[in-house]
Specification:
alpha/beta, Arc Repressor Mutant, subunit A, binds adenosine-5'-triphosphate, binds magnesium ion
């Protein structure tokens, strides 16, 4: 069919033509916004899930909801090698600009505090000391949020921004993507600031998104974090939502899928949003006419697989060193379910649709024991810690439980085994 009208959008953070299966999260968030606006207390929100399930896209949708509710919003993406102060200052600047039209003295005062907060970073001995300036066109207000201790400063910053928002009868929401990549001091500062604003009832909320081990990162930092955040697991889509993600956008273009085609799609995508977009894109282009048939999907599969192998899997695999690759391959082998008697849970295919076994897809364990990986490599577990830790830092694997390790990328094990 016409590639020009192809509606599907595979890609990191790419807005899907239809945000399927996230109504509950969107509704919950609207309630949170409304409650905070009425002075009720609410926990901050943390979205967790594997790579490509749609965390970034959902985060952006929640941000749009906040903007529609006339809130001030700012967003940042955490990076392992970057401190929080500057990107947070930029997000705060944005949020206050959105809040404060028309601008008055009160707004300028808070902007000046954001500037002091930001400049504290430049003063701390970096090479950019004299060059870097936050793009804030008011004089800095020294003595507030600029102690140099990020925890103290963030609490003061949130308090002042929250006070401004409350005076204007609005709220402020900060969106933090890849939140697991914040450094330990920054994580603890975010927790402390959320703790403080929830106690003072100020209309500020943090919405974080990250990999499945993010709750563990937060609770390792502050034991009270479990009560501080509302955790929402973002998962692959159940069958009806996965169908909707394909059918809705096709219908907009006057096209359809047969029932068999939808079933075939679900068997190959397992409901993972990235795979739905990637397959949808190729299938659309190879299909001669509407409705798209199961046969079209069989024809499209090799091309879709090879695009995923390059764009989704390969780009990540390339970030690993040879020793890390060896570790990943051993994980893939250790994750294979060896027989029907196996006790462990499998990748979670059971709850959402047809059995993957029916389509010849191998069942995999969700997580494997690090000791099993070491056994397969004939090494001592401790000697593998550097490779494992580096892979965690690169966001390719995570440890949800002590002694266990899992891929952050769905179907990564399968990909690695086809490469071997
Ligand atoms: N609810 C949804 N319905 C349909 N498609 C979706 C949905 N959510 C995400 N997608 C699509 O899935 C792909 C991945 O989305 P996104 O980048 O938000 O995932 P992510 O969880 O942030 O991944 P990563 O952990 O790699 O950052 C995009 O192409 C997006 O368009
Ligand atoms: Mg993302």
């Amino acid at each position: 069919m016409d590639p020009i009208t192809n509606p599907y959008a595979p890609g990191a953070g790419q807005r899907p033509p239809e945000l399927a299966g996230r109504d509950e999260q969107l509704r919950t968030f609207d309630v949170v916004l409304e409650r905070i606006a009425r002075g009720r207390s609410e926990r901050s929100i943390v979205l967790t899930g594997l790579r490509g399930v749609g965390k970034t896209v959902l985060l952006n949708a929640l941000r749009s909801s906040a903007v529609r509710a006339d809130w001030g919003t700012g967003k940042l993406e955490a990076r392992p090698d970057q401190r929080l102060r500057r990107p947070l200052a930029a997000a705060a600047h944005q949020a206050v600009r959105e809040l404060g039209h028309p601008r008055g003295d009160e707004v300028d005062q808070v902007l000046g505090i954001i500037k002091s907060f930001a400049l504290r970073d430049a003063a701390s001995g970096s090479k950019l000391r004299d060059k870097w300036q936050p793009g804030i066109d008011v004089p800095a207000v020294p003595g507030r949020a600029d102690s140099g201790d990020i925890e103290i400063d963030l609490v003061e910053l949130f308090t002042d921004i929250g006070g401004l928002a409350a005076d204007l009868g609005k709220g402020v929401a900060f969106f933090v993507d890849e939140m697991q990549d914040l450094g330990p001091e920054d994580v603890s500062a975010v927790c402390a600031a959320c703790h403080e604003i929830s106690q003072s009832g100020l209309p500020v909320i943090v919405v974080g998104a990250g990999l499945p081990h993010l709750p563990a990162v937060l609770s390792a930092s502050k034991s009270y974090s479990e009560r501080l955040f509302r955790y929402q697991r973002i998962d692959r889509l159940p069958r009806d939502a996965a169908d909707q993600a394909l059918v809705g956008p096709a219908a907009e273009e006057g096209c359809a899928f047969t029932d068999e085609a939808l079933e075939a799609m679900y068997s190959v995508t397992a409901g993972y949003p990235y795979f739905i977009q990637a397959y949808g894109k190729v299938v659309w282009d190879v299909s001669p006419s509407s409705p798209i048939s199961a046969q079209d999907i069989r024809v499209a599969a090799p091309e879709a697989e090879s695009e995923l192998a390059v764009g989704f899997f390969g780009s990540r695999f390339e970030r690993a060193t040879p020793a890390e690759r060896e570790y990943l391959r051993a994980m893939a082998d250790a994750a294979l379910v060896r027989g029907p008697g196996d006790q462990a849970t499998t990748e979670g295919h059971g709850d959402a649709g047809a059995s993957p076994a029916a389509y010849g897809i191998v069942d995999e364990l969700d997580a494997v024991a690090t000791s099993a990986v070491a056994d397969l490599l004939g090494r001592k577990p401790q000697s593998l810690s550097p490779a494992r830790d580096a892979l965690i830092k690169k966001g390719l694997i995570y440890s949800g439980e002590r002694g266990q390790i899992a891929f952050t990328v769905p179907h990564f094990g399968r990909y690695l085994r086809t490469q071997a």
